[in-house]
Amino acid sequence: MSLVRWLKRHLVVIAGLLTLGYLLLPNVVVTVFSFNNPKGRFNYEWQQFSTEAWTDPCGVADLCGSLALSLQIAVWATLGATVLGTLIAFALVRYRFRARGAVNSLIFLPMAMPEVVMAASLLTLFLNMGAQLGFWTVLIAHIMFCLSFVVTAVKARVMSMDPKLEEAARDLYAGPLQTFVRVTLPIAAPGIVAGALLAFALSFDDFIITNFNAGATVTFPMFVWGSAQRGTPVQINVIGTGMFIVAVLIVLAGMVISGRRNRQKA
Amino acid sequence: MTNDNSGDVRLSGMSKTYGSFTAVHPLDLTVPQGSFFALLGASGCGKTTTLRMIAGLEEPTSGNVSLGDQDVTNLPPYKRPVNTVFQSYALFPHLDIFENVAFGLRRRGIKSVKKQVGEMLDLVQLGEQARKKPHQLSGGQQQRVAVARALINHPKVLLLDEPLGALDLKLRRQMQLELKRIQTEVGITFIHVTHDQEEAMTMADTVAVMNAGRVEQLGSPADLYENPQTTFVANFLGTSNLIEAEVDTKSGDEIVLRAGGGKLSLPAARCSAPTTTGGKVLVGVRPEKISLTHAEDAGGIPEDRNRITGKIADSSFIGVSTQYVIDSPVCPEFEVYAQNIDRDARLVPGAEVVLHWSPAHTFGLDATQDIDAGVETVGEEASA
């Protein structure tokens, strides 16, 4: 009887913990196996503890090269998509122009379309244009599909922004540029940052579109896919764990900063 | 008031149209330096558009805006020596109170703002809150920040767009006095837009009543109240009893009118309508100018007073006064506010009464107007 009551009282916590476990289990497996010392070429069975892969993460040919390329593409794609997406979002919210409705729905298409269709049609386009597949085609493709996510994130923020704030800035001696830099941009910033983070994550781990349009270029997800056919080096788990840690650290830093800001206010 | 006229606001032929809709008809208006000027009207009457054109946030379709001797019609808002207190305050949410107030100074390249901002925050009694963010302040405090943020720039003219609309009644009264005090202290021209006639009358030296994109009447609060020139002004500012009457005779300063069976006297100087014998005129009188006497005592009423008869339809006691609604043959809902000095116990709903008032308190209006113009309905009140 008391067990039932205890369960009832803690049901939410239990469900929450179970969900968290479900979400985190793959990461735990990846982390644990980054300390494995596999016998064969595949890192699927636990053998014995080893820090060998951690001491030499670039020990596998081409791994760190592909990682660097992926980071590079992700940074440029984020930058391109964020700048363009922010401008598009402002245009869509602030201005009434012809075909605004059409643009609004076209922007959403890349999010709704199956990736493989987009990948294939992009490839067709590039081949027809005679473009050489590689870094640039991948970058163009990434900016294209990140754009809709940035536009969505920024648009939501700009829509909730009081246009009177910009009028107040203009009234208080701020010219158009000052108004944008001092008022519009800081207030839209959370939306822009959210869009940029989303774009980075999407670009960094994209496989399908990249695989179609990369030619001989190999990004990190393509490298992982390729090596999975022949054998998985432990270093892949090391990089994966590293990425997870970096992401967690960023989130924690964000929480600490906003927590401190809130405490200052109070 | 000084002879300095650099704070004069002059609008000449200024109008604004949106497509086929005319928000403001060509408007000529001069607001003298140092005055507290109110633009009063219901929502959609063009008062806010007028204010925005003075601020430069809206471009006039025609006409000019001048400040002192300078034509500012083509200057962008950030180059006009004018600041606005917005209805929603429009405080910058990402900046603290100090930086909000310092915003205008910093944009004009002033480096040492600390002393000025401190003094300004003290003026509005918010020195303690300097490092808080706007959302942490109450409505009244935010309102004071908005005033401080505008005033610190020493504008030639301060524009206030319904600045007290979001405050509750008690706080609004307090802020009305506060704004009036600040205005007297700094001597800057204030142009205040409001739909609240009481607020306009409490605060402003001069009130312009706007209706449908036009200024209906302009004058001091007392002048507007006592001598309305149109039915809109008569009904929008306070309450007026309007009776349709016919001109009987005109003799020198006095016009005698026929209404129902009785006769009413109206000083010719207080009639803004053209009067021809036999022509129609609307006769107006304010509810508090009227005395109420029970029909049995009608003999005691002096001969020279205007009088009509009726029956009390409703009475409500509200402390300082009692408000009666009288059903009279000349006007079905005649309102009378009687001071509670000597309350006659016979004055209850159903009683036959005589209403009488001094002819000097009577005013005459053009009968071609809508008799109900400017009467506030419940719907308008809610949306305003």
Automatic annotation (TrEMBL), chain A:
Annotated TM spans = 12-35, 73-93, 105-127, 133-154, 180-202, 234-257
- Which parts form a coiled-coil structure per UniProt? none
Intracellular or extracellular location(s): Cell membrane
Question: Please, which domain of life does this record's source organism belong to?
Answer: Bacteria
In what way does this protein cross or attach to the membrane? Multi-pass membrane protein
**Mainly localized where?**
membrane
Keywords linked to the UniProt accession: Cell membrane, Membrane, Transmembrane, Transmembrane helix, Transport
User: ABC transmembrane type-1 domain: which residues?
Assistant: 67-257
Does the record bear Membrane in its keywords?
yes
Task: Say which family it is in.
Answer: Belongs to the binding-protein-dependent transport system permease family. CysTW subfamily.
Name of the protein in its database record? ABC transporter permease
